[in-house]
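Journal club side-thread
Mid-discussion, someone asked how the predicted structure for our own chain would compare to the paper's figures. Pasting it here so we can look after the session.
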Amino acid sequence: MEKRYEGFRGYYLQMKKSVPRTVSVLAITIAIFYLIFTKIDFFSVVKVLSHANLFYLLSSLLPLILSFPIWVKRWQTIIEAMGYPIPFVKCFNILMASVPLASVTPTKSGDVIRAYYLKDEIPPTRVIGSVLTERIFDIFVLISFSLIGMVFYQKYEFISIIFGILIVLIVLIFILHTNLRLSIKESWNEKLQNIAFSMKTLTKNKKSLFTIILYSFLYWILGIAQTLMFFYALEIDVPLLFTLANIPIAIFIGLIPVTLGGMGTRDAAIIFLFSEYATSSQLLGVGILFSVFRYWFLSLLGIPFMKKLIRES
């Protein structure tokens, strides 16, 4: 009984710490959408969404369903390479339980919850290191996709931005491999050291490294395929390579922790980047579908898993 109380207490404290930040980010999200709707008629967006092609909306669930076990298997492989074998089913349950909180907090606190659920089996800092390592692979794959598309469309002004992100990533990996301690908060240095541990174990295990890279590419290929379904559902004919070049940029912007689940910032980026292919109302509709299907739909599915793990903790 005491253990269960401590589990609830730990979860409550985690939620309590994120509340002030979440409230401020909610206010920013509302403010951004208010600005968007001063330029775009609200009812025109409602009309666009009400006429969405149901076939493509239902079809968009297939890439999502296929991508989730790939995401689970990738995380399981990273943890296993670090020396902590965790069953696939348990990884699945933990990831599903982390999604609801990740969708309503600005800094992916739901990912930190993974460490809470595994606290009796893996040091929390190691789990957080595995999550941050996932982020590095995501950035690497998205950069790769975006570069291919940008080169094809000769958008050299964006290529420089992508290369800038790539250089930052390379510098970060160099710092991780040299164990340099930067003049930053000790908590950030600790995070870097745990990413370093995760990355080094992967580089020693070539099979695991290749597997994780493969899973990362498959995961985001399915993610881009799902996004194309959103365009098609709203009768927007956009080329695959153009989507490949620009959607990663919108996703990067959405990762900036200033709005809930990247909403608002990601929508504005989609409107700007795809303006030559559709109206602002249609493109805002795409952004809304992206949030609904890739964040809120999964969050609803994850609530029973979250409740179950809280009861068991």
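Post-session note: The two ends are 10 Å apart (CA to CA).
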